[in-house]
Amino acid sequence: HPPSFQMGETSGLRPAICRAKGAAPGFKVAILGAAGGIGQPLALLMKMNPLVSVLHLYDVVNTPGVTADVSHMDTGAVVRGFLGPQQLENALTGMNLVIIPAGVPRKPGMTRDDLFKINAGIVKSLSEGIAKCCPNAIVNLISNPVNSTVPIAAEVFKKAGTFDPKRLLGVTMLDVVRANTFVAEVIGLDPREVDVPVVGGHAGVTILPLLSQVKPPCSFTPKEIDYLTDRIQNGGTEVVEAKAGTGSATLSMAYAAVKFADTCLRALRGDSGVVACAFVASEVTELPFFASKVRLGRTGVEEVYPLGPLNEYERAGLEKAKKELAASIEKGVSFIRK
Ligand code: NAI
């Protein structure tokens, strides 16, 4: 492929700029890892999002095909593809939002931490690109282990002098999506009516659903609490095992990623009262990063909400979560500092 192919604007009959100018006003969004299991359905769904005017698809393999395919959808966003590290800077320049599902997924028997070796380096190099080319973009980091990759990105941005804690968000939305689904099943409601705060982090016991704060208010038996907590914490593993070595959650993750990205874009547009759970720089606990409800605005995370009243079960869960989280955060930080 030519050094900078731009699929979706290939007719050559009129300059590409005409189309970009004519496109609906909206935000410029890049997906890094766009040809992967999450990246492809995520590209599809972002191409359908009316808040997106330009969609950049970047990967180290297969972006030409994905870009050609998605670019034929008759929705507003102009799609461009970028292939390999030499095109990363073009992919990132001018972006308002960067979504990162790049990296290897789990296989049965693996924890998210087992992915650290490969994914830490990938997140490091992509973060360096962001610091250089779009330091003001909002970053939605999906690559696992999120509990370590977010601290890695933060350290890279600090080194470059571009770190703004308001703009770096680890995506934990899939935990919330799963929690809403499983809780709705137990209490017999439509999942769209259920809102479960999930705090802590994004791996095993660090995933802490606050079942005492479910909306609409409802109560659970101790047996239901054990079942729901375990299923929400191990929802990812449930999918990894069902896929039997072919990958981890991709479709529900793409859905969750778009739900989260759309939330960020509505906040950037200036909508008020935009709230979601995310893994962010935080003073809610003594840890430097923690997932909790945050309020988003034009500048990113504008308020990190406290955890609210926890019951005894949740307080015990929180202590366990913090112990594991502290180690995962430290692992990410020292990967860059060393
Ligand atoms: P996949 O292997 O299907 O796709 C990953 C893509 O990343 C591939 O297309 C690969 O070429 C690309 N890639 C590798 N190195 C890259 C680089 N340096 N720059 C750009 N792209 C690069 O994996 P899948 O299933 O899409 O998962 C991606 C990541 O998302 C994994 O780390 C997985 O653990 C994580 N994940 C996170 C979840 C969350 O809730 N935050 C949920 C599910 C998965």
Report on the structure:
This protein has 11 helices and 11 strands. With 338 residues, the chain is an alpha/beta fold. The protein has a 6-stranded parallel sheet with strand order 3-2-1-4-5-6, sandwiched between helices. Strands 9-10-11 form a 3-stranded antiparallel sheet. The chain is globular. The protein starts with 15 loop residues before the first helix and ends with a helix. The mean pLDDT is 94. Bound molecules: 1,4-dihydronicotinamide adenine dinucleotide. The site of 1,4-dihydronicotinamide adenine dinucleotide (NAI) has 33 residues, from α5.
Shape: globular
Structural class: alpha/beta
Q: Fraction of residues in helices? A: 40-55%
Mean pLDDT: 94
Spatial ordering of strands, largest sheet:
3-2-1-4-5-6
Active site: 202
Subcellular location: Peroxisome
Binding site for substrate: 106, 112, 144, 178
GO biological process, one term: tricarboxylic acid cycle
